[in-house]
Amino acid sequence: MTALSRRTVLRGVGATLSLPWLEAMMPKPARAAGSRPPVRMAVLYMPNGVHPEMWTPAGEGRDFELSSTLAPLADVKNEITVLTNLWNRSAVAGDGHYVKTSGFLTCTTVTKTLGVDINCNGVSMDQVAAQRIGKQTPLPSLELGTAPVTTGVDRNVGYTRVYGSHIAWSGPTSPLAREINPRSVFERLFRATQPRGDAAGQDRLLLDRVLDDAKQLRERLGRSDRHRLDEYLSAVRSLEERLERAGRPEELAWKPRAPLPEEARPAGIPKDFAEHVRLMLDMVALAFQSDSTRVCTFMFGNAVSNQNFSFLDGVRGGHHSLSHHQRDADKLRQYQLINRWHVEQYAYLLKKLRETKEAEASLLDNSMILFGSGLRDGNRHDPHNLPLLLAGCGGGRLAGGRHLVYRNDTPLSNLYVSMLEAFGAPVERFADSTGPLSGVLAGS
Amino acid sequence: MAGFDVARLTSEKSITETPRSWSRILARVRQGEMPPKNSPAPAPEVRERFSAWIDTRLRTAACSDGIAPGPAPLRRLNRAEYAATIRDLLNIHINAGHALPADGAGGEGFDNAAETLFLSPIHAEKYLEAANTALGYAMSDPRSRARFLIAEPNETTSPEQAARKVLVAFLPRAFRRPVKPEEVEHYVALFRGARGRGESQDGTIAFALRGVLVSPHFLFRLEDPNPDPAPRLVGPYEFASRLSYFLWGSMPDETLFGLAAQGSLHEPEVLQAQVVRMLKDPKSREFAENFVEQWLGTRELGRDIKPDPKLFPAYYDAEIQSAMRYEPILFFQELLAQNLSLLNLIDSKFTILTNKLQRHYGIELSERLRQQPKRVELPPGTHRGGLLGMAAVLAVSSQPHRTSPVLRGKWILEAILGTPPPPPPPDVPKLEEEHGGAAARTLKELLLQHRRNPACASCHNRIDPLGFGLENFDVLGRWRTEDNGKPIDASGELPDGTAFNGVDELRVVLLRQKDLFVRNLTSKLLGYALGRGLTIEDSCIVNQITAELEKNDYRAQTLILGIVNSVPFRYQAGTAANAPVPAPAGGSGNTRKTEGST
Fold it and tell me: What is the ipTM of this complex?
């Protein structure tokens, strides 16, 4: 399949079709093998769940009406799929937040610990993708957030807060550190995409020295200590590989990489939270646009975030405490406004990607952007019927513009199987998956 | 608890025979997870009595055969340690670690715990960059240059000879130990390579030094593994690093290196003198800051926890934020440097104020304060003195828009008494309601009403009264006598019938529980010093240190000396796991006596 399938189009008929969409359907010579734009994948994680009664759209299939929380998506309604009744079985036990955050993209149950035997017991979906195709871009993946790792351990429930601050795990014991400063992200993208010639070569000399030191050192260490040193070794090796690849930019697969516009360089972390989020989302768009990476995760906040949302009219108080609404009408109202604000930011990113032309289509057409939370009702810490939205066409692989209602408790991991397939990194199984999720892929 | 059979653990003896299983059981019982849902649950008092009994049995058993050092896992410098080490190594005053990702916390709740100091691919990149920035800065600052560029090429010194001189002096400081000649040659080779490309002397030296700063010998705190089955004293240089990263959060200085070279740092008098010197050094700020902010949770203030700017604009002033933030840190540092009683943390006659914080608190003083924080003796009737009257603590245990007796009570149970309540069961209505509302009842009335629900009452009877004792402080810790036009009721009654009214009486109540407080603080500090979570064996040390503290008027330096003299701090485990350090002849324990220390 070269462009969007006819079925996809037929499903979308009746709603407004934007011009790039029509363009994307046209089989073009430029879309021949090799010059076809790559698929990008981003996951936007929202902490603390949603107001359960204000999320799900009315109606099913193509014929659905956005709920009040999803209303900000009106302009991109044809490009989103609302997924209802998926759950994360592995995140049922344990506590209210931590297992549901670190387990959100792994679909595994994290080990209960204050730190000493930290283990997510899996690999997150985004990292499965990054490990498969990450070498085709300067950065294998990008992990972003707005808040530093929450300090301390949560003795009330017996978990280290590290679990609440990570959704990307490259291995069972390797949560990936996130960047929270938009300026640093920009600099990183800039360095990654600008061939630096000799500087990169010099860095590699230093890294060789490091590897020699580390190898000698390794022999002297006990087994458990070797593991820590090996983490550094592999970090250094992957940087070395990257620097080497950067020396051969002609080998990168996707040619029309857009340069980074200098005026997009952020000054730093803005004081204003909403602006901070926007800048981070801008960085996601830039990363994709410049093909610096094709895999990105972004956490609006850490689990249990009590971010003050009083900048929204009618909201007074912290996110987490409002999510424990106790079915109080006023708290539910505020909780929903916070949810809706997050959806608005998602819509912002989607529109931005749609406005960015790439080949004959838009960047959104070549992306799939998942939005979700690890629990549904914040008052119940409930991983059933998770709030999940998938947007973009995945280069024509995804069918969009629908509300898909599944059987109760359909595995979330099935969605990941389908996303990985659309991404071009198919897997037989993912965690507790039972197969692909029907209806997500075009023609499925 | 998959694969965990409790059917065999039926006798009291099994506690001492299978301490690990029992400590897991203890944690689960305390967190309310055992007995499981839908089985009959014991009353909270019974639960607590049962837990306390297991706890005591476990500790007694662990302490009976001498103390094992426990693990000392390999760990990298955390972000703060990295920055402080670069600062001291290069004599520069920029934060070289600001671009590094923040570190998560493990163990006793600190971000220096080996178990959660991960390395992501991004770290390698950031270390290269940070080294580049720091060296660029250091090379261009004459004062700093002089610190490490100790040789320059001239008629009698070739560029390579100069580089070798620089490296011979720099490497032992960077690696915090003597280096072998061949190690120096590795870095001279880097210099030579860069030189071959025709770079300047500065550029080539910086290149070699950059190699040093990304070496695992610099980035990790490495200790030679102990090949023997039995524990041994940790090597002198390694001990110097253990001390300096504990008390300064940075590398050892010349004095410590010198004593390590002499091999005298393990000598009791030398060690004690060094500890006292280090605690009086301004670098102990690093320690006070890292420990206190994570212990009290005040690091989250201004991060995840921010007072509502519309309701509390007073917080949005850089000077007041800084004064609030540093009050508990500088207070703790003062206790250490002056060897004052740790009970000052609960109740004290002084605090650390700036002019703005003084006004914020509404305290009348005869002296005129400035922008610089200063120790101030408190006049009577200020209701300040001790952590409970500090704005940072009161703000971090509030909601953004109002105070929360529940959060504050929980904070006292966790941070002060070390007895965190179990989490609320899911989907029960929480106790709190908004102020006001149609019925315009007070928060207290609402909470009292909720506490009639027995499922909630068992914990909230413990939590809420403590928090009510602090109701005279608003979200920003300012004193108030009414809220929403209603007078503040700061009275509370604990489940055991102890009644109090207001923060001054609450302090007296907490002082009666000083054993719990001192044990909690000792455990936290020991976990911080060791950079790991405590094991049951470590609780013997906590016992010994708290006993010493009781004998020494709870003096702060007694606590620090107890820790640096403890077996896990001074020893390295051998290959035989859990082998204890034999008790010295005539000594009752393994902690050196610290009586008489001042």
Answer: 0.88
